[in-house]
């Protein structure tokens, strides 16, 4: 089942617009994971893993430098906030009830 427009908007607001997943990718993740919150966490976990897989800062002496340490800290904080919400989303559990004996109209044996 595809993600609702409201859920898709919320996920995109959490994950940002840099290298955005397609609607189909979001729908596939939603089908697999079951909630928009879990989809946002999965996308941000992948981005966090990419961010920490290489050097956080580097420079060409006297010419150019990049420092992503604050970006990594911010990403970790957002991810931590979303993960804290996991498990707080209400769920519905459906069970089948069975009787010990089959039902019979009164007076029948």
What does this structure look like?
The termini are far apart. A two-stranded antiparallel ribbon has the order 1-2. The chain is mainly alpha-helical and 109 residues long. The protein has one domain. Helix 1 runs parallel beside helix 3 and helix 3 runs antiparallel to helix 4. The mean pLDDT is 84. 11% of the residues are buried. It has four helices and two strands. Strand 1 and strand 2 form a beta hairpin.
Secondary structure: elements and pairs:
Blueprint lengths: L4 H11 L7 H11 L2 H17 L4 E4 L3 E4 L1 H17 L24
Antiparallel strand pairs: 1-2
Strand content: 5-15%
Number of strands: 2
Alpha-carbon distance between the termini? 48 Å
Biggest sheet record: 2 strands, antiparallel
Overall outline: elongated
Query: How much is the radius of gyration in Å?
Result: 23 Å
Number of helices: 4
Q: Numbering strands along the chain, what is their spatial order in the largest sheet?
A: 1-2
Low-confidence stretches: none
Chain oligomer state: single chain
Structural class: mainly alpha
Q: H/E element string? A: HHHEEH
In short:
By secondary structure, the chain is mainly α. The chain has helices at residues 5-15, 23-33, 36-52, 69-85; strands at residues 57-60, 64-67.
Features:
109 residues; mainly alpha; two-stranded antiparallel sheet; 51% helix; elongated
């Amino acid at each position: 089942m595809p993600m609702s427009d409201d859920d898709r908007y919320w996920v995109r607001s959490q994950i940002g617009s840099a290298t955005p997943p397609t609607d189909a990718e979001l729908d596939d993740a939603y089908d697999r994971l079951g909630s928009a919150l879990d989809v946002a966490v999965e996308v941000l976990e992948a981005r966090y893993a990419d961010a920490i897989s290489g050097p956080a800062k580097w420079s060409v002496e006297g010419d150019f430098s990049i420092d992503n340490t604050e970006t990594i800290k911010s990403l970790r904080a957002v991810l931590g906030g979303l993960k804290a919400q996991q498990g707080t989303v209400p769920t519905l559990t459906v069970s089948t009830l069975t009787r010990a004996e089959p039902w019979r109209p009164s007076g029948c044996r």
